[in-house]
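ping. complex inputs:
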Amino acid sequence: MIELQRVTKVFNKGNSNEFVAVDDISLTIDPADISVLKGPSGAGKTTVLSVIGAMTKPTEGRVFIDGREITSLPERFLTGIRRKTFGFIFQQFNLIKGITALENVMIPSYPSGEKHSSLKKRAMDLLQILSLSGKAMSKIEWLSGGEAQRVAIARALINNPEIIIADEPTAHLDTKLSEEFIGIMAALNKEGKGVVIASHDPLIYGAKVVDTVVEIRDGRIVDKEERL
Amino acid sequence: MLKRKSDVFLFYILANIFILAILLGHAFFERKRSQPFLMQRISMILHYQLTDLCLFTDARYTRHPSMADMNTAFQDHPFSFEHFPSGSLVTPPVHIRNNHGLD
Amino acid sequence: MAWIEKQRNILDFALSSLVRRWGKNLALVMVYTVIVFVLASILFMTHSIKREASLILRGSPEIVVQRILAGRHDLTPGRYIEKLAKIPGVREVKGRLWGYYYEPSTGANYTMIVTDEHRENVGTIAIGAGVARSSDVREGDMIPFRSSDGSYVSFEVTGVLTPESELVASDVIEVSERDFRSLFAMPEGYFTDLTLKVRNRKEVVVVADKIRRLLPDTRPILRDEILRTYDAIFDWRSGLLIVVFTGAILAFSIFSWDKATSLSFEEKKEMGVLKAVGWETSEVIAMKSWEGIVVSLTSFLLGVILAYMHVFFGSSILFMPVLKGWSVLYPHFKLVPYVDPYQLAALFFLTVVPYTAATIIPSWRAAIIDPDSVMRL
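pong. complex structure:
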């Protein structure tokens, strides 16, 4: 269970360009669900997502993961929690160019000190599940949009996280690939992984598999819809 | 065996260090081997009462730097480019630099 | 062992990252290698020459006394010998006869020396290996010399010195006293300079002082001064090579500083991605450090190995055009490799450490960015 208590995030605090991205949000995310943060761009979805994913500390308020307060933890512990608990899929995928798909998938696990052979095997298995084994040795820039998306998913899964966090994953995908994406997320959810997606794409928040939709506007929650 | 980039790199570094070790070994044995020749050179220095190594023969102040004086032609400070390139490598002898050739 | 595995993983990524920009990095490694190569070559060569000099010049005369006339060397009268011999502490005084002979046909300068052993062998000479080479003569041949009155006198070569002695006597021509005096029209009773042996080594300075007072028109040159002269020769700061090379080093410093310190947007973004997918700041810095270590260690080892081969197997062939200068008679000598781990360590700290440090500092600044920054790009 991830709990945000009265979280506020202010960028450039005290400067003339001060900007309140998130304003007093309280929110509970069930790790068994597929949750969607919905809202126009600039509403603060990405910031809420990074607070949930322990990427950034809120300016005010507290965050609990499984009842443990993480806002006051130093960076080192936060990184550890992030590595174990979350897998991230970014808007532009943020894959590293010039190296192979396989290496990209392995990167998040490099610092764990896992044996190279076993890490490689896990990465290959993931690529196989996502039907990418033939592309393992291809460089990122040679992959199609759909393939790159699946590499990004594989990379999010390499540390076997409890929750997958995706930020506008379908922003650069066509309808077919967007549907494929939500399909993969549904499959992962069935296996017990939580999914949190920020999106303003109706294909995502309108999908049947989504359990909760939270609408955010101007840094505040304006609506919360729980589908049964 | 060398499947990983890091293995290739470490192997390369180890190979280099190994070669370097061989070269240091070469240096060691070469010094041992040249011991008699060193003795020969010392006896030749004694025999000829020489004061300098025979490195540059182009000018008299480069052939016997320690026997040179301040007035020798073209003998400038090492930093200035001069007539004989080797003169740039050979500094004026200490006793001249210290006493400005006055003694 | 997880730590080692972790570093190997990070090294894997660093290497991938270097290979990706292989053109730029290969150029960097090549320039870097050349720099190390030249520095190491100079270091090896000068250190070996200095070491050799300090070992063998211990055999040179303890004091040389030169007569100075109007600021120039002049012949030393034989009567100075007795005067000097009377100084307490002086064991032996000898007149030295030596000079230079310029051979117009080859353009070479020779050093002509009279020794006690050769004093009586009139009409014969023993020559250094360099002389034999430059004038293409062997034992038994006759060599003509142009005397001071313009006439030619021929001497028979009765001995050629060993190649191993070239470092000290490559250009030497050993000649009898009578031939020397008649060739150069040097008056009887005069010498080129005098050499002194002193009973107690500690008294050398005292004796030199007494010489200066007793014979004010002379200059004593002490062996210790000669040795110090050789220590100063090829000093790191001196010399044409270094001066010319300083420019190259500076250019490289600027180049590597720029390369190492200014991270491209691409690199910064990558570091953000690494942080976002769960790398710690220290791990990102470790990755960048590995990049620096790979580049500098590769160049260092390659440069040192090539330099060793260049100096001790290839007789410093690349420096020869500079060292050779104008001389015709160039001594062929193989330097004894006085190379030790301390020299290598010094070179290591001069080359590898600054570069690696220069890569760490800017990446440290870039690595502390918030992991979420990559989401906000």
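Chain B has two domains: 5-48, 60-99.
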